[in-house]
Design goal:
The structure holds 3 protein chains of 3 kinds.
Chain A lengths: L6 E2 L21 E2 L5 E5 L9 E2 L6 E2 L4 E4 L8 E2 L4 E10 L5 E9 L20 H10 L12 H4 L10 E6 L8 H8 L1 H15 L4 E6 L3 H14 L1 E6 L8 H9 L14 E5 H13 L5 E7 L7 E6 L4 H7 L9 E4 L6 E2 L13 E5 L17 H5 L6 H9 L3 H6 L10 H5 L6 H21 L1
Parallel strand pairs in A: 1-12, 2-15, 10-11, 10-13, 11-12, 14-18
Antiparallel strand pairs in A: 3-9, 4-6, 5-8, 6-7, 8-9, 14-15, 16-17, 16-18
Helix pairs in contact in A: 1-4, 3-4, 3-5, 4-5, 4-7, 10-13
Chain B lengths: L1 H26 L6 H9 L12 H10 L13 H11 L9 E5 L3 H4 L4 E3 L4 H4 L18 H5 L5 E4 L2 E4 L9 H5 L5 E5 L4 E3 L7 H7 L9 H5 L4 E4 L2 E4 L9 H7 L6 E3 H12 L6
Antiparallel strand pairs in B: 1-5, 3-4, 6-9, 7-8
Chain C lengths: L17 E3 L10 H23 L1 H24 L4 H6 L2 H11 L9 H12 L14 H12 L1 H4 L14 H6 L2 H9 L11 H11 L16 H8 L12 H13 L6 H20 L7 H6 L3 H8 L10 H21 L6 H18 L10 H8 L1
Helix pairs in contact in C: 1-2, 1-4, 1-12, 2-4, 2-5, 4-5, 4-6, 5-6, 6-17, 12-15, 13-15, 13-16, 16-17
The chains are: A alpha/beta, B alpha+beta, C mainly alpha.
């Protein structure tokens, strides 16, 4: 099956062995039971957090607007269930720092009251109405960056976009949320892509899927023809799902350093984002749910769950049957780029694609005695950087040297630290240097 | 004969080269203010950057040019400043000696968190908001100790402690600290409040047993000597009558957050050597 | 709403959560595994040396390795480093075995400790330990010993197959004194001989070295001799003689992904190309390239020394430049230098250039456009 097709890929990257996908990729998506309380974090999108439009004590219905976008780079937030706004307070956020959240005590009825109507005839609907729907429904990039989708849909003057790429690569180990989504709801994904294509006036639409998801590819192909969407087969390689690598693999274009994919005529959207968009347009419901992979070797029944945003990680683990032993790490997102969390009370956000529990024996994975210049990080780096030298420079406090060697091009995919035989914290060093360089840049701007 | 030839050749060569060097020294002579060298000699020479200039040589140039006064060098002693002022024939400028204090007692109050990664405060602070329970406390990974040009900061257990007798107040540690837990205080003050968290008492209490709970007892008992900044008590270093050991006993802080530098060091040492909670 | 029995579900408390930066997975490779792989790749040659030179070879290898580990442990103890952590990565052990590979089997027992101190202290730990040494520790020790103790380091004995026959190496060795002894019927302490490369140098010295000379090396590079060299049946260091064992080691290293295959291939290729060209044009200057391939430490150096991760360039292009430089220097030293063997000097010299090579042979970042091209693009 593989040989008959043109399998696309990029240079560099790694192939994580034992990628843990088989833990969850065969079980269908399960619906999660209703909880008593949901904690909806306000800052669920990149950019400015939305402003709450409800007060403590208000009764809200499912899908009702909780917080309205503040400015262009911001996204609306809707209630995941019906109930009472019991509090608006700071809780532990996904980035470790306290962040403002709306606490909803569910009434158990789950009464829906969507603020907008479905647009069944989206093929002929006005583009502005569709665009407005994306803004209203609070759709953000669900692959991880949580960038408000409507910003990407309005390319600035002078930039022509001719290709829309759907990112179904899901190259992160352990995660299968997109895989199950594409397999079980292929029409949603494809139709969402077609709607996006209509908004952007693009006919050239690809869905990029790694060939380890042949069942998902088969499901997508069933609908692809009807909507004029093409499937691109991608080699199983991490980080195949990175924007720049994906564009390079599918179109052969190289997104220049310091520019956006838009500058190369491409727009990349996650498949989950497209499914949410389809829900918003054809069903008229906002983005309040997502498929989350709850997985890890210590989880009793790992699987994919349709979780409402605001579900605490602890409850998600309960749905998955609990644990066999105390985990050493809780990660939101995949194991390569996900963030370690401080507590199990952190709730699911729109961009949480996975909840990963890592066993204690794997939790301490950085222990360095010194770089041996093996060059594996250089081979693994999809951006053609030299991570070991960057890291050495950073450890010596030479952030200027790191900047000279293009540290800002690093996307922190973690390939280098994954292959490092010395287990150096390369990515942490890179983050540190980037933060310091941004600080310096801001300081020089102020001057 | 050979010997004399060699001697003559070498001698002539030496003379010629010497003459060339002499000519070029005259030709490319850089006029230098000898006051700069004088000032440089008298400055501490730590190149700490506490004055905001690129090292002592730069500061000496600025001194000679009259851009700064000796008082702008925070690390030199009063005598040194007077000597510089006298040597250059300028005013010594305002003299305000400062020292750094790490206002945190996480080592005796907070549970340790598991962290695996770069042993640098700024890098660690980027991982999930930093590996401490309290967002305002000392991370204890020693970035300040590494930048201190005077070796005045010691990591005792899990927090940094400043040795006041070594600290010159160059502010390098305060600049590098991602948590802003290092405060600059007058050098003669030796009693401080060791907490930096402006959070509500309930939250603070749940994170750290040694945090100021904002009960305002000290403010009531020692009016004028202690002021409140939100939920955090702070010593008013501008107060005319300084806080004393008796004052500490008198106010009997419920979390023992007010203490002298000496006591703080002893407590930290004790905690580090296994004698847990104070 | 749920039929799951909540009481039986074990939930995490979050007490043992570790905070760390991504990635949270690791490939599972480690220094110890890399060093173990190198040792594994050396096993064929260790076995071959034992077969060719006798059991003393095994003893010398073991003894040198122990000396190196002891030197490392002692330094770490004195420098207040974690002793176990430093010796448990097996790097000192690998250095020891590689150093032993560069020693003759007859080496006096005081030499390996000296070598260990040179290798571990002078070449590795003074620079800050593993990963920071600019030069290959085993080669530094070998060159240091070769210069300091030339007699002890070049006392070659014939290998297993050489005893009865009358090879040119043997003829050259017999000194007047020994011949007298033999004639008098006195027993010899032992028989030693020269390496083929040594013979080549002597031939160069005693015969016409000019470019016009006729082929001087017919005795050395005949097919019969080459086939003898190919199985390692010649005098030489412990680890350099048996080509099949070394090539087997090369494949082990490549399969385990421990070396860049380009380095040995380009290194050896360059040497063979240069010596082949010289041999074809001026047969009086160089024996044929197969002689160069199978003699001296070329295979050992190219496969195990030049590929040392710490002291070779990072990028593929850099490795090619590095290997090419090693090859050129080796050929030049062998053909026109004073020492019969040039591999160790060549590798050490190129080691010194590695930081420069790394700088010049960097990769262009994905999507990076140099400033000059940007200007053109605007025009």
């Amino acid at each position: 099956m593989k040989s008959s097709r043109n399998v696309m890929t990029f240079a560099g990257g790694i192939h994580p062995h034992g990628d843990g996908k088989s833990l969850t990729c065969y079980t269908p998506v399960q619906n999660a039971p209703l909880l008593d309380k949901y904690f909806v974090i306000l800052a669920q999108n990149a950019g400015k957090p939305p402003i709450p439009v409800v007060k403590k004590g208000d009764r809200v219905k499912k899908y009702q607007l909780l917080a309205a976008a503040d400015g262009a780079v911001s996204a609306n937030l809707h209630s995941p269930t019906s109930g009472i706004v019991s509090n608006i307070r700071d809780i532990q956020g996904t980035h470790g720092v306290p962040t403002s959240a709306i606490e909803i005590s569910a009434d158990g009825l789950d009464e829906a009251d969507s603020p907008f109507a479905p647009i069944p005839d989206w093929r002929h609907a006005d583009v502005d109405i569709l665009k407005q729907r994306v803004i209203e429904a609070g759709i953000v990039g669900m692959g991880g960056a949580s960038f408000p989708t409507h910003v990407k849909l309005s390319p600035p003057e002078g930039k022509s976009v001719d290709t829309l790429i759907l990112n179904g690569a899901e190259c992160e180990p352990y995660l299968t949320a997109d895989h199950r989504l594409m397999q079980e709801f292929p029409e949603k994904v494809i139709r969402g892509a077609a709607i996006l294509g209509r908004i952007l006036n693009i006919g050239n639409i690809f869905v990029g899927v790694e060939i380890n998801k042949l069942d998902a590819i088969a499901a997508l192909e069933h609908y692809a023809g009807d909507y004029g969407v093409k499937i691109a087969y991608l080699r199983v390689r991490y980080p195949q799902g990175s924007e720049k690598q994906l564009i390079n693999a599918i179109t052969g274009r190289t997104v220049r350093s310091g520019t956006l994919p838009m500058d190369s005529g491409c727009i990349v959207q996650n498949v989950a984002t497209c499914a949410a968009l389809d829900d918003a347009v054809t069903l008229g419901i906002p983005s309040v749910e997502r498929i989350v992979t709850v997985t890890g070797e210590v989880v009793v029944k790992p699987g994919n769950f349709k979780l409402k945003i605001g579900t605490p990680a602890l409850e998600a683990v309960r749905f998955a049957g609990g644990i066999t032993e105390e985990p050493g790490k809780l990660v939101f997102g995949g194991p390569m780029m996900g963030f370690a969390q401080r507590s199990f009370q952190v709730p699911v956000c729109k961009n949480t694609s996975g909840i990963l529990l890592i066993p204690q024996k794997q939790a301490y994975n950085f222990e360095s005695s010194g770089c041996i210049h093996c060059g594996r990080c250089v081979q693994g780096c999809p951006m053609n950087l030299v991570p070991c030298l960057l890291s050495t420079a950073i450890e010596a406090g030479r952030f200027d040297l790191a900047a000279e060697n293009h540290i800002m091009d690093c996307m922190e995919c973690g390939s280098c630290a994954y292959v490092c035989p010395d287990h150096r914290p390369l990515i942490q060093n890179v983050r540190h240097a980037k933060a310091e360089l941004r600080k310096q840049m801001n300081a020089s701007k102020e001057k | 004969m050979t010997f004399y030839t060699a001697l003559v050749i070498m001698g002539l060569l030496g003379l010629t080269l010497g003459a060339i060097v002499g000519v070029f020294v005259k030709l490319f002579k850089v006029e230098q203010d000898n006051r700069v060298e004088l000032a440089l000699e008298l400055l501490p020479g730590a190149n700490c950057g506490g004055c905001g200039r690129a090292g002592c040589a730069d500061f000496a140039r600025a001194l000679a040019a009259g851009e700064v006064t000796p008082g702008n060098c925070p690390v030199s002693s009063v005598e040194q400043r007077a000597a510089i002022a006298m040597a250059l024939g300028i005013d010594a400028g305002p003299i305000e000696m400062q020292q750094a204090v790490v206002c945190c007692r996480a080592d005796i109050g907070a549970e340790e968190m598991n962290y695996n990664g770069v042993q640098d405060c700024n890098a660690a602070n980027l991982v999930a908001g930093g590996p401490t329970t309290c967002r305002y406390g000392c991370l204890g990974l020693g970035s300040c100790a590494r930048v201190c040009p005077f070796g005045a900061i010691e990591i005792v257990g899990r927090v940094a402690v400043v040795h006041p007798e070594l600290c010159t107040g160059c502010k390098q540690c305060a600049k590098v600290c991602p948590r802003n837990v290092i405060k600059m205080v007058p050098a003669n003050a030796n009693i401080h409040i060791y907490c930096n968290s402006p959070e509500k008492a309930a939250i603070k209490r749940s994170l750290c047993a040694a945090g100021c709970i904002g009960c305002r007892k000290c403010e009531k008992l020692l009016p004028g000597k202690i002021k409140f900044d939100g939920m955090l008590a702070q010593i008013d270093y501008d107060s005319p009558d300084a806080i004393t050991q008796e004052d500490i006993e008198k106010c009997n802080c419920p979390v023992h957050g007010i203490m002298s530098e000496k006591e703080r060091y002893a407590v930290a040492k004790n905690a580090a050597s296994g004698g847990k909670r104070a | 709403m749920t039929d799951v029995d909540n009481d039986n579900i074990k939930l995490p408390t979050g007490e043992k959560l570790v905070l760390s930066s991504s990635p949270h997975l690791s490939s599972g490779s480690s220094l110890r595994k890399i060093m173990g792989g190198v040792l594994l790749a050396l096993i064929p040659q260790i076995a071959a040396s034992a077969w060719l030179f006798g059991m003393r070879a095994l003893f010398i290898i073991f003894y040198t390795a122990v000396c190196c580990v002891a030197a490392e442990a002692l330094w770490c103890k004195l420098a207040d480093k974690d002793v176990w952590r430093n010796i448990s990565d097996c790097s000192a052990c690998v250095t020891g075995v590689l150093l032993a590979m560069c020693l003759p089997v007859t080496v006096p027992l005081y030499v390996p400790p000296l070598g260990a101190i040179l290798a571990i202290w002078l070449a590795k730990q003074v620079y800050g330990g593993i990963g920071n040494n600019p030069f290959n520790p085993a080669l530094v020790a070998r060159v240091g010993l070769l210069i300091a103790l030339p007699a002890a380091m070049t006392l070659w004995t014939p290998s297993r197959g050489m005893k009865q026959t009358n090879y040119p190496e043997k003829q050259l060795f017999y000194t007047a004194e020994n011949i007298k002894k033999i004639n008098n019927g006195e027993p010899l302490d032992g028989v030693s001989c020269a390496t083929p490369l040594g013979v080549m140098k002597s031939i160069e010295k005693i015969t016409d070295r000019s470019f016009k000379a006729e082929d001087n090396f017919t005795e050395l590079d005949s097919w019969e001799m080459i086939s003898r060299y190919a199985v390692g049946d010649r005098a030489g260091c412990l680890g350099e003689t048996c080509a099949p064992a070394l090539i087997l080691g090369f494949f082990i290293l490549v399969i385990l992904n421990l070396i860049n295959w380009k380095v040995p291939v380009i290194f050896i290729g360059t040497v063979m190309l240069i010596t082949g060209t010289v041999n074809a044009i001026w047969p009086g200057v160089s024996p044929n390239p197969l002689f160069h391939l199978l003699n001296g430490g070329l295979l050992l150096g190219a496969i195990f020394m030049a590929t040392d991760m710490v002291t070779s360039p990072i990028t593929g292009r850099g490795c090619a430049v590095f290997a090419c430089g090693c090859g050129i220097l080796t050929s030049v030293i062998r053909l026109w230098g004073n020492y019969p063997e040039g591999v160790s000097f060549a590798i050490l010299f190129m080691n010194a250039l590695v930081p420069l090579i790394d700088r010049w042979c960097g990769k262009r970042p994905f999507g990076f456009v140099p400033k000059r091209e940007k200007v053109n693009a605007h025009e």
